[in-house]
Amino acid sequence: MSDVTIYHNPACGTSRNTLALIRNSGEEPEVIEYLKTPPTREVLADLIRHMGIPVRDILRQKGTPYEELGLGDPSLTDDQLLDAMMAHPILINRPIVVTPLGVKLCRPSEAVLDILPHPQRGAYAKEDGEQVVDEQGRRLI
């Protein structure tokens, strides 16, 4: 069983790049396609608490019902925002990665390098060609 879990959307380039960086460290993570298997409310609240960020910071706006649901309203409580994410998992920003070193929303994808337990094993470039890791496994950005 892996020590690394990624809440993943295979249609998202940032999520795919993050998954590739995890694998480039020699780790085969547990991959949870959160649109097919959303986290429970308790798990999501726990992930957010471990990230140390406000609930609002995990909300995805682009390509979601964020505007139609009026989620920009600053008077909405954390519970109301969590309710919206439970009803519409597409509102959960991704990828979220859990490792023994922490929990992080990995946007940009190279943010995952801060919490991976093992170093990169070789060069890695994002899907757009941007070099992230050199041949010696050293972070470039």
UniProtKB/TrEMBL annotation:
<dbReference type="InterPro" id="IPR006659">
    <property type="entry name" value="Arsenate_reductase"/>
</dbReference>
<keyword id="KW-0059">Arsenical resistance</keyword>
<dbReference type="GO" id="GO:0008794">
    <property type="term" value="F:arsenate reductase (glutaredoxin) activity"/>
</dbReference>
<protein>
    <recommendedName>
        <fullName>Arsenate reductase</fullName>
        <ecNumber>1.20.4.1</ecNumber>
    </recommendedName>
</protein>
<dbReference type="Pfam" id="PF03960">
    <property type="entry name" value="ArsC"/>
</dbReference>
<keyword id="KW-0560">Oxidoreductase</keyword>
<dbReference type="InterPro" id="IPR036249">
    <property type="entry name" value="Thioredoxin-like_sf"/>
</dbReference>
<comment type="similarity">
    <text>Belongs to the ArsC family.</text>
</comment>
<dbReference type="InterPro" id="IPR006660">
    <property type="entry name" value="Arsenate_reductase-like"/>
</dbReference>
